[in-house]
Write a structure and sequence with these properties.
354 residues; alpha/beta; Metallo-beta-lactamase, Chain A; eight-stranded mixed beta sheet; seven-stranded mixed beta sheet; 10 helices; 23% strand; globular; disordered N terminus
Length: 354
């Protein structure tokens, strides 16, 4: 009997160990707003645009990206090279998209094919990946307000958000627009990447609030891949449905998660967006993304160093740590002690980065 009790205790301890949430998350910046979150029991890839479409293919509209001259196929070989550097097929089990413009969502279907990962994003996300051969059951459309358990103790709260620009100067980029039907790819798998073609913004944007209840305590971070100060306080209405004001939606997600601050904010938008978001989010650290351009070759790395003095001054005045990325595939560890850079030379070396 004692032996049975002893064996049962070992078994229960082993099960508890398997179910335990991680005590840290490793975060890799992969260019633009492409982020890789390694949580041990779950690996999440956000956006994942590696292909790099030619700028000369875009035309028309106030942004210049309204339409394209011809459809283009994703660069599956380039995506696979990055995936292999991360560890191959098992390295990604969840794919999320913030919004659905080409510089964020163009490669989502390719990542899904290569990994078998679950896809989460706007209804537009699901239509885009279906156009690339991914079954509908593999994609979960989210409107905002959802809580999704990614692994034991790891939760993701979906926040309905907005896109940069405004409805006067950049309406085709900014105004919320979902696809009405699955796009029709060419026989070669090419799609039209214009922001009013196969890659609209997906009803504005989706942002994601993560919490990890690990053995040493809670970790949290907020990721948004675009934003406009023009209407963060204004309700987002699409098809007659009011999706709420982005800042109100963020405050609701914070309440649902039981948070009054987060450990890290991963974002774009500069000082004007920060002035609005900081009072709601109260982050301890800030990681800027989407500062490196859209069309430079991925293998070339960032075209210039990160610099935003006005935002840096605002963050310093609020006692918020600025985490400066320098090269694609830079990596940090977030745990209860804060955020710090960690070595990623093996992955960088595999992709030719120093």
């Amino acid at each position: 009997m004692k032996r049975q009790v002893f064996c049962l205790s070992i078994l229960l301890a082993a099960c508890a160990s398997v179910r335990a949430a991680p005590d840290h998350v490793d975060i890799t910046w992969m260019s633009i707003t492409n982020l890789y979150f390694d949580l041990g029991a779950s690996q999440v890839l956000a956006d994942g645009y590696i292909t790099r479409l030619p700028e000369e293919n875009f035309s028309s509209g106030t942004s210049g990206y309204r339409t394209t001259r011809h459809p283009v196929r994703p660069d599956a070989a380039a995506v696979k090279e990055v995936l292999d550097a991360l560890g191959g097929k098992p390295a990604v089990d969840v794919l999320i998209t913030g919004h659905n413009h080409f510089d964020h969502a163009f490669d989502t279907g390719t990542w899904a094919k290569l990994t078998g990962a679950r896809v989460i994003g706007a209804a537009t996300t699901c239509m885009q990946v279906r156009a690339q051969g991914i079954p509908a059951k593999r994609c979960t459309p989210v409107e905002g307000g959802e809580k999704i358990e990614l692994a034991p103790g790891v939760n993701m709260y979906v926040v309905r958000w907005n896109h940069s620009g405004d409805n006067v100067k950049l309406p085709e980029l900014h105004n919320p627009l979902e696809l009405a039907a699955v796009p029709k790819a060419t026989a070669e798998g090419a799609l039209r990447a214009g922001v009013t073609e196969d890659f609209p913004n997906g009803g504005g944007n989706r942002a994601y609030l993560f919490t990890v209840d690990g053995p040493a305590g809670r970790l949290s971070w907020f990721f948004q891949d675009s934003a406009s100060p023009v209407d963060l306080r204004e309700p987002l209405v699409l098809g007659g449905r009011n999706h709420g004001a982005p800042l109100d939606n963020l405050a609701a997600a914070m309440r649902a998660a039981g948070l009054d601050s987060v450990d890290l904010w991963i974002a774009t938008g500069g000082v004007d967006v920060a002035n609005l978001v900081l009072p709601v989010l109260r982050p301890k650290a800030y990681l800027p993304v989407h500062w490196d351009g859209l069309f430079g070759a991925f293998k070339a790395g960032p075209p210039q160093p990160y610099s935003d003095p006005a935002l840096g001054e605002l963050l310093a005045g609020a006692g918020i740590e600025l985490v400066k990325p320098a090269q694609y595939m830079d990596k940090w560890r977030l745990d209860r002690s804060g955020i710090r850079p960690i070595d990623n030379s093996a992955v960088k070396g595999a992709l030719g980065f120093r």
